[in-house]
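Per reviewer request, we include the raw input and output of the structure prediction for the construct analysed in the revised manuscript.
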Amino acid sequence: MTELRHRSAVSPLRRAVAGRAVRPAARPLVDEVVRAHRPDEPLHCLRPTVLAAAAEAFVAAFPGDVLYAVKCNPEPAVLRALWAGGVRHFDCASPAEIRLVRQLFPDASVHYMHPVKARSAVRSAWRDHGVRDFSLDSAEELERIVAEVGDAQGLGLFVRLTPPKAETMYDLSGKFGATPEAAVGLLRRARAVADRVGICFHVGSQCMEPAAYARAIALAAEVAAAAGVAIDVLDVGGGFPVSYPDVTPPALALYMREIAGAFAASGLPAGCRLWAEPGRALVAPGVSVVVQVQHRRDDALFINDGVYGSLSDAGAPRFRFPARLIRPDAAAGPPTTAFRLFGPTCDSADRMDGPFLLPADMREGDWIEIGQLGAYGAALRTAFNGFDQARIVEVRDRPLIETPGYGAIAVAA
């Protein structure tokens, strides 16, 4: 029997950590689950084999350590699938994420890569969870970290550098990152108190420009040289993109080629280690959400999930997501009509303009599977208006869209 688990936005996912895993041979197809259960709440469909394959591909391609960005999707089943794919390092941004990873994987390498942290969070990470690596982008943060860990061995400090601008969906330099001039001084101070020192950066989310990593690596090398500091780690961050209906990114191999070439030409010490912090690239294709149509008004479909639920990126950010009709009891025509979607809350901002291409005869009671929601779909859900209930199931389907570099091995169990 298919195992469906209930979840809510106000009941954190980590409460399901002890849940029983579903054996691959027992995983159904999405259509089979809909036919059997006819869900009237959003149904999150996890593809563990796809997730593990994406992790395996990235770990094999990247010439260093791969740190999964837990904020992207902290669902325990997702984390287990990434672990099965070879991920052994985790980029955490809060005490809760650190506790979750430690609970699931006691031997994992956990890195606290949020540049601004509460003193109590630093203290707990160091003393209670064995975290030794911390990022920073200011002298004040450096002093806070040193004050809380004391005169201890094994400290790793990583200066977050603002990289050159790049072609990305989200520019992340507005909140975090030291200027090159400030980074020089931070590196010198970090070297005086830490056992290992590094530079980290983030070129921006959904980066469509492989050369952006090369430019950022070159700048990091210039900063290290100006500081006179032999860094131990260069962390190229995240931003690796995935496909969407109107977006086909360059192949993963092109990003790896730019990173490896720039690193080789950087003049950084021979023992310097490369890190990366992928999030979206590992998990986006591995989860879809099945929603139900509650009402149709011309080209607008009112559904039971929205921007306050799993579809935040389909709202103001205007991400387009692949969608398909599921109608167990009747045939459907081709997806030829552009629809917009409205979520279940009373807020008129709860709208997703898409367009979502679906058959022209969409009607109340139909189900729609929306793909590429493994990244931030679950993490950004709220309990607004009380629409916080959902169900979760593991399936064996392929992703709705393949991304270059992953499709060859992202196959069903």
